[in-house]
Design goal:
It is built from 17 helices and 18 strands. It is an alpha/beta fold. α11 links the parallel β10 and β11. Bound molecules: nicotinamide-adenine-dinucleotide. The site of nicotinamide-adenine-dinucleotide (NAD) has 28 residues, from α9 and α10.
Length: about 475
């Protein structure tokens, strides 16, 4: 089904240039090939950017109400196709069907938010800054923008990117992860069905060459990246050097701090869900628990709950946890677990004693592994979290308001949950990971997303009455 769909998209619907067949998209659960997408050649990538550049003038001049209408239709089409999109995600990426629907749903919320563009893109005015003179600003698009996405949210993350960029009047070049290329193609087709003109969105498939091309092409004015630090730091540096705006959302090591006064039942269920859901392949997964004081004794119950999760192919009824993205990812996770054992951690469903200097703590594992540390006090826990270089997300579990307030104020992490394990902000806010989890100065979606995809033009105008005509040249600066 997905293979047929992708082929038909490539051939007929989406304005994509055909190239040599290169990437095989495989079912993650079985490792069978389910489709192929063309790796874009250099000529095809040039053609894709040219297509975005040609479409830019007309699109940026399209009335904002017309752009809003397209995204209103788009959000409805995504809702109508959510099950199909989810099936494709489960097939390509492996997560369970219910979780795949969540993946689409959280992206859909960003699209719904773009439908408020008539408010979001308002400029500012200040009348009468001096006699007969007014100043006002326009928020305007910046040109061709590009998005580079990771494998773990095949719908949500591309939907953080091109809808935000395009609704502001930019045209968009999207490079999905080569490991999950199909979902972005289906999303592009739905946008075309919603009425987006040809050339406003182009998709290229590739990896390093495509990334370098995006970082270097002078027509591309801004890059939104989400993925690992290795790629994200490189893209931030190369893109910025070439004068582009870059926002780079990267890796994480998110800590859940458990106070002994927390609601035990809720906390243990939330921890297990947030550590092992999507096989731990979420940038906001709670991959590290810090148990404080008496909460140390909750470990056996945490283990029991983790044992109860059913691991299966994502499309199987009752599956809680699907497979990792690839055999290589599994090998990497296993080797990080082994490094923990070699360095003295106890493993599997009976252990504790990971120390902050161990590799399994310092590196992002990105798998179904919960690292458990212990601390004597909240102050100690805050020190541990603040010493870790990443700042994507964290959560505190407590029934004590003062402890919660202290934690939210003193912890140096961009997104904090209080009894909320995965505190991803809704799109009227922005996604505000910090420190090693982010490079750039304007975050994804929300007000900051609009800022990222627009530039300001300031107009100062004077309309004098005829009888107020200047009598001589104004050679001095006005005071
Ligand atoms: P990845 O960095 O391997 O791939 C992301 C994109 O970069 C892909 O499109 C890929 O083609 C490209 N790429 C990969 N390696 C590259 C390189 N060396 N040079 C240039 N381009 C390269 O990431 P992934 O494995 O697909 O995704 C998992 C990572 O993404 C994790 O680290 C996770 O924490 C992070 N992530 C972060 C967020 C966030 O919002 N902070 C969200 C989701 C995922």
């Amino acid at each position: 089904m997905a293979a047929t769909l992708m082929r038909s998209l490539v051939k007929k619907r989406v304005p994509l240039q055909m190239g040599r067949l290169c990437y095989s998209s495989s079912s993650v659960a079985t490792n069978e090939v389910i489709g192929r997408v063309p790796k874009a050649t250099h000529e095809e990538m040039l053609a894709a950017v040219d297509s975005c550049s040609r479409a830019y003038h007309a699109w940026s001049e399209t009335s904002i109400l017309a752009r809003q209408q397209i995204f209103l239709r788009y959000q409805q089409l995504i809702k109508d196709n959510i099950k199909e999109l989810a099936k494709l995600i489960t097939l390509e990426q492996g997560k369970t069907l219910a979780d795949a629907e969540g993946d689409v749903f959280r992206g859909l919320q960003v699209v719904e938010h773009t439908c408020s563009i008539t408010s979001l893109m308002l400029g500012e005015t200040l009348p009468s800054i001096t006699k007969d003179m007014d100043t006002y600003t326009y928020r305007l698009p910046i040109g061709v923008c590009a998005g580079i996405a990771p494998f773990n949210f095949p719908a949500m993350i591309p939907l953080w990117m091109f809808p935000m960029g395009m609704v502001c009047g930019n045209t968009y070049l999207m490079k999905p992860s080569e490991r999950v290329p199909g979902c972005a193609m289906m999303l592009a087709k739905l946008l075309q069905d919603a009425g987006a003109p040809d050339g406003t969105l182009n998709i290229i498939h590739g990896q390093h060459d495509a990334v370098n091309f995006i970082c270097d092409h002078p027509a591309i004015k801004a890059i939104s990246f989400v993925g690992s630090n290795q790629a994200g730091e490189y893209i931030y540096e190369r893109g910025s050097k070439n004068g582009k705006r870059v926002q780079s959302n990267m890796g994480a090591k998110n800590h859940g701090v458990v106070m002994p006064d927390a609601n035990k039942e809720n906390t243990l269920n939330q921890l297990v869900g947030a550590a092992f859901g999507a096989a731990g392949q979420r940038c906001m997964a709670l991959s590290t628990a810090i148990l404080i004081g008496e909460a140390r004794n909750w470990l056996p119950e945490l283990v029991e709950r983790a044992k109860g999760l059913r691991v299966n192919a994502g499309d199987q009824p009752g599956a809680d946890v699907g497979p990792l993205i690839s055999p290589q990812a599994k090998e990497r996770v296993n080797s990080l677990i082994q490094s923990g054992v070699d360095e003295g951690a106890k493993v599997l469903l009976d252990g504790r004693n990971v120390k902050p200097n161990m590799k399994c703590y310092t590196e992002e594992i990105f798998g179904p592994v919960l690292v458990v540390l212990e601390a004597d006090s909240l102050d100690d826990a805050i020190k541990i979290v603040n010493k870790n270089p990443y700042g994507n997300g964290t959560a505190i579990f407590t029934t004590n308001g003062a402890a919660a307030r202290k934690y939210t104020h003193e912890v140096d992490v961009g997104q904090v949950g209080v009894n909320v394990p995965i505190p991803v902000p809704l799109p009227m806010f922005s996604f505000t990971g910090s420190r090693a989890s982010f490079r750039g100065d304007t975050n994804f979606y929300g007000k900051q997303g609009i800022q990222f995809y627009t530039q300001i033009k300031t107009v100062t105008s004077q309309w004098k009455a005829e009888d107020a005509t200047l009598k001589s040249p104004a050679v001095t600066m006005p005071t």
